[in-house]
Amino acid sequence: MKTGIDATEIESLEVSGLGLVTKGLIVQHPMFGQGKVVALFRFPPGGSTSHSIGVEFTTVGYKALAPEYARLTRTSA
C-alpha cells in the first residue's frame, strides 16, 4: 500500500505577493506567527499545478501550506 503524497522537492518558488521563496526565508503567518521555510514541493512530480511550502513555526511546529492561500509575509527577523 502506498502512503503519502508523491512530490518533488524544489529549490525555489515564485509566490504572488511574497516574491521568490527559498529555504531559510523567515515568514510571518497571521495565525501561526513567525516561521522559517524549510521545504518547497511540487506535485505531482513533473507537474507544475500544485505547490506546498513547508514552514517550521516557532509556536506550532511544522505546517505544509498551499502558497496561494497561506497569507505569508516576509519578515526581517
Note down, in words, how this protein is organized.
It is a single chain. This protein has 77 residues and is mainly beta. The chain has a single domain, classed as SH3 type barrels (Roll), CATH 2.30.30. Helix content is 0%, strand content 52%. The protein is built from no helices and eight strands. The chain has strands at residues 8-9, 12-15, 19-22, 26-29, 33-43, 50-57, 61-65, 73-74. Strands 1, 4, 5, 6, 7 and 8 form a six-stranded antiparallel sheet that branches. Strands 2-3 form a two-stranded antiparallel ribbon. It is globular, with a radius of gyration of 12 Å.
Distance between the termini: 43 Å
The rounded Rg comes to 12 Å
The helix-and-strand class reads mainly beta
What is the H/E string?
Answer: EEEEEEEE
Count, helices: 0
Which runs of at least 5 residues are low in confidence (pLDDT < 50)? none
Q: What proportion of the residues is helical, as a percent range? A: under 10%
| Tertiary shape | globular
Tell me about the largest β-sheet: 6 strands, antiparallel
Number of strands: 8
